């Protein structure tokens, strides 16, 4: 694993969406809590050094446990729903997928004041993907598409359908219609929102009627591990499930462009309707991130304030709109 927590939401988007209820209060956790949990429940690892993972995400508190292991504590009750799923399915994925994925080694129980189930994982080496860190974007896109194609081909008959455990990934895009329209309303006067509404409406109309398949649920740069410039692993399966795989496509606009985007789509054999829904998933997250970065009158630091926070979201939105309206 890299120092990217497993899992974590896309930057700028706090989950769950308002339609799913209020954002839960996150449980505080530190190295001392992890040390006590490990000592009482897994004494074979007692004494290993513990340190918090850098750049911690939202869903879990993640800690290094020695050099080869990690501890992951769900930060609130809704995120703990993924633990049983991960322990059930990640060993199956690990034996079938063409790239390394996290494998749980032990499941902890509530204790020492901590209220949720939790996990010990084997650490995967690699750095989070970035445009600068990828040696060949075309090969990277093809390798990622090949990985997702194998994932989609696994037996999905007993897999978990969309639900609260994964914030309804794989279900109807309309789940996030209200949140998207609120973001569009907030962006009126800051952007030409009519083309954005056109992209969103097209995505909603492209309803899915295929057979349920496995999907990852959050194919983001922070969840793709790179070594020597190549794709070396995929992490963060907390939002995985069985349903519409269009939710795995936003990486086509957040990371890829031009030939690499076309190769990614071709290798996955994505039809027009699924591609439109994929644009919708990417647009939803980017619009919410952009709207959340708007000035609030609080005197933000220009280096870290709304312009800096919204720049990447605006770039992605521009990519989505250009792709949608391209002849």
Structure, described:
- This protein is of the alpha+beta class and 327 residues long.
- 39% of the residues lie in helices and 13% in strands.
- It contains 9 helices and 10 strands.
- The chain has helices at 31-41, 77-94, 137-153, 177-187, 193-205, 251-254, 258-268, 272-292, 306-325, and strands at 50-52, 60-65, 69-74, 104-108, 118-122, 127-128, 213-215, 224-227, 230-234, 241-243.
- It has a 5-stranded antiparallel beta sheet with strand order 1-2-3-5-4, sandwiched between helices. A 3-stranded antiparallel beta sheet has the order 6-8-9, with helices on one face. The chain has a two-stranded antiparallel sheet with strand order 7-10.
- Strand 8 (224-227) and strand 9 form a beta hairpin.
- Helix 3 runs parallel beside helix 7 (258-268), helix 4 (177-187) crosses helix 8 (272-292) and helix 8 (272-292) packs antiparallel against helix 9.
- The longest helix has 21 residues, at 272-292.
């Amino acid at each position: 694993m890299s120092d990217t927590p497993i899992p974590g939401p896309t930057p700028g988007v706090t989950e769950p969406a308002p339609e799913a209820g209020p954002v839960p209060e996150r449980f505080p956790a530190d190295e001392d809590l992890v040390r006590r949990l490990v000592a009482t429940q897994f004494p074979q690892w007692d004494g290993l050094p513990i340190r918090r993972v850098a750049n911690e995400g939202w869903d879990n508190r993640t800690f290094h446990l020695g050099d080869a292991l990690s501890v992951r504590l769900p930060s609130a009750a809704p995120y703990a729903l993924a633990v049983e799923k991960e322990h059930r399915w990640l060993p199956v994925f690990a034996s079938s997928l063409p790239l390394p994925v996290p494998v749980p080694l032990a499941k902890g129980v509530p204790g020492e004041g901590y209220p949720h189930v939790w996990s010990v994982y084997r650490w995967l080496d690699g750095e989070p993907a970035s445009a600068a860190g990828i040696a060949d974007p075309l090969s990277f896109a093809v390798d990622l598409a090949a990985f997702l194609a194998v994932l989609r081909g696994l037996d999905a008959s007993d897999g978990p359908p969309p639900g609260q455990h994964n914030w309804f990934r794989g279900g109807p895009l309309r789940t996030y219609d209200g949140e998207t329209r609120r973001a569009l309303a907030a962006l009126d006067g800051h952007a030409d929102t009519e083309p954005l509404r056109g992209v969103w409406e097209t995505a909603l109309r492209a309803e899915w009627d295929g057979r349920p398949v496995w999907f990852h649920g959050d194919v983001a740069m922070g969840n793709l591990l790179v070594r020597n410039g190549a794709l070396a692993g995929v992490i963060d399966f907390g939002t995985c499930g069985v349903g519409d795989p269009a939710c795995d496509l936003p990486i086509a606009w957040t990371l890829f462009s031009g030939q690499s985007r076309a190769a990614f789509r071709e290798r996955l054999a994505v039809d027009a309707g699924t591609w439109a829904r994929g644009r919708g998933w990417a647009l939803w997250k980017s619009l919410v991130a952009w709207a959340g970065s708007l000035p609030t009158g609080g005197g933000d630091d220009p280096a870290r304030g709304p312009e800096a926070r919204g720049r990447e979201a605006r770039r992605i939105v521009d990519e989505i709109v250009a792709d949608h309206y391209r002849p």
